[in-house]
Amino acid sequence: MTSLAMDRDGQAAQASAWLVRLSAGDGGESEALAFDAWLDETPGNREAYAAALATWHEYSAGADAVGVEIARPARRPVSLSRRWMAGAGGLAIAATVALAVLPALTTTTATYATTKGEHRQVALADGSKIDLNAETRLSVKYGLLRREVTLTDGEALFDVAHDTRRPFTVAAAGRMVRVLGTQFDVRSRSGDVVVTVARGRVEVRPNATSTQAFTLVRGQRLEVERTGRAQLHTVDPQEAYSWRAGRLVYRNQPLAEVVADLNRQFVQQVEIGDPALAQTPITGVIVLDDPQSVVARLSLMLPIRSVPSDRGLLLLRK
């Protein structure tokens, strides 16, 4: 046997072993990191694993055609020798073991959430990072062919590792953001969605199946209201990072929105006592140090004053 053939046999054996390992394992993200490292370790590993998967699919189709029932294996490590696993016969055995559970176990789903005033960073196995703003909830579905995020509510900054094999998507309030490698911020509150691009390019669709799409590049922000009305703006890309540094940037936005943001950051709550004040527009930067200082600076920008209340501070017209 030539050294090339031996190398191919060895890669086939390793690919088969990974099929079994992924089907049985409970390794989570560390397992995914190890698998990604193996794929990139040696030229030909990806092809060997693709061949193993193809054999598995063929075996699955053949079993279905003749009515063979494949039993679900116990979820525990399986020990198989590399010699036994090598070649097509070994691949068929690996397919038997992995058939019932591989698709589910190679895709992991995790949910992350922050509370009032809490910021959190999540690192994915591919090197992507997600920064969650206060009172944010999202889920991540991560697998061999997908990287899908569902932003239930809140705001998150995404720094996405480039991977053409696994497009990165974010679903928020019925809109779909798709990207291959970039840095962008998504805000979803009460059905309104705002997407700001700090680096690269993203595509925003009204929903996952829509043919209509907005393509955003660095320094662009798309605001989509719950009614479907969309507005495109040009902004400083650094605005996408501002909340991580304890600053909120507003451009002609109503006081009610500012107060809602403040109440996600502080335990001490701010209320608007005069309904007419709620729609007063604000343009400027607010530093998030403490509620009293923030409201004091707001009073320099708007005709408002504050008094203590049961929940914190009450805003009244001067």
Features:
alpha+beta, 31% helix, 8 helices, 3 domains, 318 residues, Phage tail protein beta-alpha-beta fold, 3-stranded mixed β-sheet
CATH class of the largest domain: Mainly Beta
- Rg calculated over all Cα atoms: 26 Å
Q: Tally of extended strands?
A: 18
Helix content: 25-40%
Oligomeric nature of the chains: single chain
The overall pLDDT average reads 80
Say what the CATH topology of the largest domain is.
Jelly Rolls
> Helix- and strand-based class?
alpha+beta
Structure notes:
The chain is α+β, with helices and mostly antiparallel strands. The chain folds into 3 domains: 3-105, no CATH class; 108-238, Sandwich (Jelly Rolls), CATH 2.60.120; 246-317, 3-Layer(bab) Sandwich (Phage tail protein beta-alpha-beta fold). 31% of the residues lie in helices and 34% in strands. It has 8 helices and 18 strands. It has helices at 3-24, 28-41, 45-65, 82-85, 87-98, 102-105, 255-265, 291-301, and strands at 108-113, 120-123, 129-132, 137-142, 147-159, 168-172, 175-179, 183-189, 192-199, 201-205, 214-217, 220-224, 230-234, 247-254, 269-272, 281-287, 304-308, 312-317. Strands 1, 2, 3, 4, 5, 6, 7, 8, 9, 10, 11, 12 and 13 form a 13-stranded mixed β-sheet that branches. It is elongated and about 80 Å long. The N and C termini lie far apart (90 Å). The model is unreliable at 60-105 (pLDDT under 50).
Chain-wise SSE layout:
Layout lengths: L2 H22 L3 H14 L3 H21 L16 H4 L1 H12 L3 H4 L2 E6 L6 E4 L5 E4 L4 E6 L4 E13 L8 E5 L2 E5 L3 E7 L2 E8 L1 E5 L8 E4 L2 E5 L5 E5 L12 E8 H11 L3 E4 L8 E7 L3 H11 L2 E5 L3 E6 L1
Parallel strand pairs: 5-6, 15-18
Antiparallel strand pairs: 1-4, 2-3, 3-5, 4-5, 5-8, 6-7, 7-10, 8-9, 9-12, 10-11, 12-13, 14-16, 17-18
Helix pairs in contact: 1-3, 1-5, 3-5
